[in-house]
Amino acid sequence: MSQTDHLSNNTASSTLTIIQPDDWHLHLRDGDGLMAIAPFTARQCGRAIIMPNLSPPITTTLQANDYQKRILSATQQYPKFKPLMTLYLTDNTPPDEIDQAIKSGLVFAVKLYPAGATTNSEAGVTDLKKCYPTLERMQKLGLPLLVHGEVTHANTDIFDREKIFIEQRLIKLTQDFPELKIVFEHITTADAVDFVTESSSFIAATITAHHLLMNRNDMLVGGIKPHHYCLPVLKRETHREALITAVTSGNKKFFMGTDSAPHSQKNKENSCGCAGMFTAFAAIELYAEAFDQVDSLESLEQFSSLNGALFYGLKVNSDKITLQRKKWTVPTSYPFGDDNIIPLRSGQTINWTLLS
């Protein structure tokens, strides 16, 4: 049964109160950019899993500790917000680092980036076999592996990279480590939905708001839209529909992970633009819109506020938030270091407003 406290869909001013959500996949960058964007998430969420793909990446517990301090400094106006840190897996990550991560109490997962798959993934894994001793230690100690699930073969169609990863990498990984907790990050295909649904309780997945709201036409029709380019790339409509079915099904394996990935305007609007969408400024509002479109607002709380905490073995947040079905216009840009960042829906409207 849904734990939603209040839901009224009868008027244009209807409200929805839910347990405070968590973002289980978030990019915050560093430096001035971090200071500019971290408060958006801290205002909405109780916790967030922080991605480690800085330059250089966060590969040790000591580095994660230092990065967490910088995040807490950037979000001090929201003292209840807790950044949950991760380590960046490399071919050479020693098993002993996993021991240190567990002892620290601040590292909650390790992130697998196949080398060359996405932003700052050059130091990522070239051969999973090289990581097997470390993965064995993670399985033993219960530290989850977060997987960017795409192959990087030059001859693989970009729209098939997730499907091929499942077939060539992920099935074997789950067979070799049947009790390793794995989060299949930002899934984008019906193939991934089926894989997670049919797998053991050790397998879960995050799904972004932008993959629930858009398909590849939104990136390509009428001209290429660089601010809609992300990795994994937007897929065809049938895959978007499969994602919607997954998040509204009540299946506890699927939970909120925005993959909000800020890049400066000059780096997005470039002859080789960066991959990523900035959605943290209105994360829960965008998810509410996606659920509202299919008349499933009653499923939002479980997806955004309950399932992730259950998978990670954490308590549900004690605070609550209230949303109102009220349109507002998104700013055309936000400050981002010495440049601007163009948010999703720049200059357009979002149908829900976060009240508190």
What labels describe this entry?
356 residues, alpha/beta, 8-stranded parallel β-sheet, 12 helices, globular, disordered N terminus
Description:
The chain is α/β, with parallel strands linked by helices and 356 residues long. The protein contains twelve helices and 16 strands. The strands form four sheets. Strands 3-4-5-6-7-8-9-10 form an eight-stranded parallel β-sheet. The protein has a four-stranded antiparallel β-sheet with strand order 1-2-11-16, covered by helices on one side. It has a two-stranded antiparallel ribbon with strand order 12-15. Helix 1 links the parallel strand 3 (23-26) and strand 4 (47-50). Helix 3 (95-104) runs parallel beside helix 4 (132-141). The longest helix is centred in the middle third of the chain and has 16 residues, at 161-176. It is globular and about 50 Å long. It starts with 5 loop residues before the first strand and ends with a strand.
User: Taking all residues together, what is the mean pLDDT?
Assistant: 94
What structural class do you assign from the helix and strand content? alpha/beta
Instruction: State the distance separating the first and last CA atoms.
Output: 24 Å
Helical content band? 25-40%
Total helix count? 12
Q: Quote the beta fraction.
A: 15-25%
Rg? 19 Å
Based on Cα principal axes, name the global outline: globular
- Total number of strands: 16
Largest sheet: 8 strands, parallel
**pLDDT < 50 stretches:** 1-13
- Strands ordered across the widest β-sheet: 3-4-5-6-7-8-9-10
Order of helices and strands: EEEHEHEHEHEHEHEHHHEHHHEEEEEE
